[in-house]
Write a structure and sequence with these properties.
Blueprint: H1 2-18, E1 22-26, H2 42-55, E2 59-65, E3 69-71, E4 88-94, E5 101-103
Parallel strand pairs: 1-2, 2-4, 3-5
Amino acid sequence: MLKFFFAIILSVFFLTGFANDIFIYVSPHGKGSGSLQSPTTLEKAIARLSDLRKTNPKGTITIFLNDGEYILSHPIEITTQSGGTKDLKIIFKAAAGAHPVVRWPKDYTNRR
């Protein structure tokens, strides 16, 4: 009985501890929903952050960048509405084995 109770406690801990983690997969020419099998674009993933932050105020949102060159139309802008908080981490990370490169037009270089 004690083993059963301990197993339930561990299950609840792990399920609630990681329930708020969100994974979004992107690729340079993504046209999908952001799943592993159907990646979206980096711009679309960033655009979703504000809404995801509202519905998931705790946990981690990880954006996995697949291999390739991401040529953005404008620099990435993370605002206070779309950025992380003390309870919500937002992580940009290369997918396993990937070597993504992010670039934007030269006319945006060194602008502030």
